[in-house]
TrEMBL record:
Keywords: Hydrolase, Metal-binding, Metalloprotease, Protease, Zinc. One of its GO terms (molecular function) is metalloendopeptidase activity. GO terms for biological process: peptide catabolic process; proteolysis involved in protein catabolic process. InterPro entries: Metalloenz_LuxS/M16 (IPR011249), Peptidase_M16 (IPR050626), Peptidase_M16_M (IPR032632). This is Peptidase M16 middle/third domain-containing protein. The keyword Hydrolase applies. Residues 3-264 form the Peptidase M16 middle/third domain. It comes from Apolygus lucorum. Belongs to the peptidase M16 family. One of its GO terms (cellular component) is cytosol.
Amino acid sequence: MQPEDYPFEDVLFGSYKLTDWRPDLITELLGYLRPDNVRVSVVGKKFKALADKKEEWYGTEYKLEKIEPSVIERWSDGSLNSKLHLPDKNEFIPSDFDLAPRDESHKFPIIIQENDFCRAWYKQDDEYFLPKANLRFEFLSPLAYQDPLNCNLTYMFVILFKDALLEYAYAAQLAGLRWELTNTKYGMVLGIGGYNHKQKVFLEKIMDKMVKFEVDPKRFDILKETYIRTLKNFDSEQPYQHVNYYVSVLLSEHSWTKTELLDATEQLNVEVLREFIKKLLSKMHVESFVHGNVNKAGSLEHVSTVMDRLRDSVGL
């Protein structure tokens, strides 16, 4: 399809424009969705012994069975399932796309708050003028990379936290927000970008979850196993990859090797991680940078959202 094939007002939907409203066709289609008019495909290795036919072209083994009338009858008498419903309202969908009130313009970011616990940088967008902003918070702690075990613990905290936040993150992504949390030698870095209207709501959700985070033992075991496998797979990489890695290690002022990290995973367990998270969050210094469609007052609100929750979590 080429844009010139359609009038300007029809370019977005092209040949998919519906010209007639036919509710009778919708009703007719729904009428075919009945238990007695269904074909069910069940796929799995455990059914291999039951297969009695083989597909001509690909040799796929299969078996055909009629659905018992009693099953059809049971399906026909089924009641509504409360778990099947429309999704809840997405609280991250923006509705305010106005530009923030203008502050005095600065060519470079400026420090708007500095104390023993945090230092906040800020720059209001004066180039693109879009209803978007970028928030970055670096959580600094000497504990994060103190030894190979602490490095592993910080990594496990980050991946478990991201795993637990998937529900919120998906809704936020649909609403034009993106986020990332990564572990570094100095601690963790949290980044949020996209439409600025609901960023504060999203940041509050993230921080509430972070300071009240509970380790799920099942997810811990699964993600720990994946992490260990990743460390072990390093030995299977190409020699040039090993060269690049070890050159990086040698040139780093402070770096734990994958062998050291792998050895330290033997001490990695749920209880150790729980205690580590408490200590990590209690010894944080936050360096932040807010840039975009946010003025100074709005930037300080974001900083307060983070700092207030960290202080509350340690009783300050």
